[in-house]
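Late entry, written up from scratch paper. The run itself happened at the end of the previous shift, but nothing got recorded in the book at the time, so transcribing now.
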Amino acid sequence: MAVIGAGPFGLSAAAHLRARGIPVRVFGSLMVSWREHMPAGMVLKSTPAASSIDAPQPGHGLLDFCADTGTRRLESDWDLIPVETFSAYGQWFADQLFPDLEQVRVVEVDRVPGGGFALKLDSGESFEARAVVVATGLSGLARLPRELAAAVPDGPSATGPVSHAAQHHDLSGFAGREVLVIGAGQSALENAVLMAEAGASVRVVARGAGAVRFGAAPDQQPRFSPNSPFGRAWSLYAFSYHATHFRHLPAPARHYLVRNVLGPLGAWWLRDRFTGRVAVTEGRRIVRARVEDGRPVLTLSGGTGAQRELSADHVMAATGYRMDVAALDFLGHGLRTQLSTSRGAPVLDAGYQSTVPGLYFTGLPAASSFGPVMRFVCGTEYASPRLAASVAAG
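Output as recorded:
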């Protein structure tokens, strides 16, 4: 088998496949999204209990990493996980289980007559696999609002007037600059704080009134609701532990829930760093954007129709990601046309297999079939054993 992607979902799926005696090759740049596409100094929103990469054998969780490397124990809901620590954990996990990890890029996957897949690597190697797992995470799926996209026909750029949050790792270059951050989720609020702390003048622009909100601290969680990796709530418990039933909901309901459950909300610990340091414009949506003399200018409209303009040195869109198999350009055109999709996401069976036999998806591409838990590391505990069992049965 070939597993494409060396982030948490790819590593976890490969570990479960190998534990079943299935030969696996794993391809990809190890933990690339965490190392290169998230800002230095970032802290994970998830708790330690929700941040272990699942393996079929004990000894590979976040606490095991802490014990083995002498890292401060991360076990309480009050313990915060720096992104650098989590990246190091992923490296440690791979070192333990995948010393043969191949940090090369898969450039093409296509069907071969009689079943199976032909793969080409950027190293020049070609080979065949009986099955393929796509676990490429967020790569290539960054979403830019069309109004912003129209202002930068060559696309967003970290050094241009408009960027996506995924294009930045070092935010120190924003010192002394004016920046508008679009969005109200953890990525928007944390990037805004980190830039402000680096010396930038930052304003968050959020569409909804009262959109900038922060979650409850661990001691303020509801006492009489069941616990889940995301907090105490019946809905979160159901999405975490009964994700198979999510597949049976009508498609519009599934897509709505993926967008809105665990949606835009800052972490409880970010509130004090945000308040008084970052300006906020709420209840406004972007109706137009243009670039004048190298500076982006946004035209905003409120609920009454009154318009307002804001300009800055740079606009960062922290507007999330959107699954679209068309963006997975390593999948051959013929293969993509054979996939049944729902709003760009692959339709998957209970074992994470697509409508192309032998082609599996896990992580974010599986969210529209299995729910919002697939957007988080703790989703590996649900996805990987089921995917491996399906492959073994096939």
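The longest helix spans residues 83-97.
(Scratch paper discarded after transcription.)
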